Amino acid sequence: MKSSVSNCPVPTEQQPLNEYEELKSSWLFRDSTLSWRHYFTKILWIWGWSGLVAGPVAAASFPPQKYWAYFFLSTAAGAGIGVVLVLVRLYLGWFYIRDRLYSQTVFYEESGWYDGQTWIKPLDIVNRDRLIVTYEIKPILQRLQFTFAGLAGIYLIGTIVWHLL
């Protein structure tokens, strides 16, 4: 029996499974699928590069020779903003694909923004897509949520240390 995808009117690049495969292989989003060690290393790289921008800004307010602790804390917090922005982009991208895969209907455009259509997925496609969501995408979203929580904890600790100085 042939798969129902062959009868799918949705253009190939707008089919949720193909959008998922494309997202999974793109340079930024693929990093969130790595092992915890490699994922954490990538987050540290983003934090480090963001620190190169945040450091001079922090030095303008807190000269490192005089206020080294405030300089370090403000540089770390400023660099964290770069990490947060990247994480928000990752989360929104994965969340969008999750919604497209989980939905029983697929909205698509045939030739432009003015002629949108809706396709109702057959049951076998719905089941396949929901398995992908459960076993592939939910763990990625949970990892990103855990990273957000970790950053919030780091910001909280930094704030406490700032007030104790």
TrEMBL record:
Keywords: Membrane, Transmembrane, Transmembrane helix. It comes from the Bacteria. The chain crosses the membrane at residues 43-62, 68-92, 146-164. InterPro entries: CGLD27-like. The keyword Transmembrane helix applies. The keyword Transport does not apply. This is Ycf36.
